[in-house]
Design a protein that fits this description.
The protein has 5 helices and 9 strands. It is of the alpha/beta class and 179 residues long. The chain has a domain of 115 residues: Resolvase, N-terminal catalytic domain (Rossmann fold, 3-Layer(aba) Sandwich). A hairpin with a 2-residue loop joins strand 7 and strand 8. The protein starts with a strand and ends in an 8-residue tail after the last strand.
Length: 179
């Protein structure tokens, strides 16, 4: 069986070796199952909350439609996406191309995994956003500076890309979230 591996880590604050570790674990699983690695796709320091600015995932989905592999292996479902709509779309596209999705955490992925884990991953993102807003509000109340790292996602040239802007120290004088 020809397998594609997908690996990702979320932010530049995480260890870049994470991708190497994910790939190595997936390779070990594929070899133990008697398969071969056809392709490896990665996205470094990119959130799983959106699929648009992830060239590795976009390439995987494009190649899936061209029959370059029979199965996709990832460490966990959240490596592919933490967004319910996106993970359902990824799964649907792979199923349409007759490609099996397997993760080291969940095993062979089914509709049940997509529904349950997709919901859990979306709740994780919602909880993280709430904690981040709380931390910013607390810093504002204390008059402490907050380090803000902005990521610009947009259409540049002929494709979606992401640009990481340098961190900026800001002093919040009043916290009024608008979301």
């Amino acid at each position: 069986m020809r397998s594609a591996i997908y690996a990702r880590y979320s932010t530049d604050l995480q260890n870049p070796a994470s991708i190497e570790d994910q790939v190595r674990s997936c390779e070990d699983r594929i070899k133990a199952d008697g398969g071969t690695v056809a392709e490896i796709y990665t996205d470094a320091a990119i959130s799983g909350s959106s699929t648009k600015a992830r060239p590795g995932l976009q390439a995987l989905l494009r190649d899936a439609g061209h029959g370059r592999f029979d199965t996709v292996v990832a460490e966990a479902l959240d490596r592919l996406s933490r967004d319910q709509e996106d993970i359902a779309g990824i799964y649907k596209r792979l199923q349409y191309a007759d490609i099996q999705l397997t993760t080291l955490s969940e095993g062979v992925v089914s509709e049940l995994h997509i529904g349950l884990k997709g919901t859990m991953n979306a709740l994780f993102l919602k909880d993280l956003a709430q904690k981040t807003r709380g931390a910013c509000a607390g810093a504002s109340n204390r008059g402490s500076p907050v380090v803000v790292t902005l990521t610009a996602i947009g259409w540049f040239g002929a494709s979606w890309r992401m640009a990481q802007l340098p961190p900026v120290n800001v002093r919040l004088t009043q916290w009024k979230p608008k979301w």
